[in-house]
Amino acid sequence: MNTDTLNYAHLYLGLTRQELKRRLELGQIDPQILKAQLDQNSREVKLDALSERWIELKSLDQVDKFLPTE
Question: 3, 14, 29, 30: most buried by Cβ count inside 10 Å?
Answer without folding.
Answer: 29
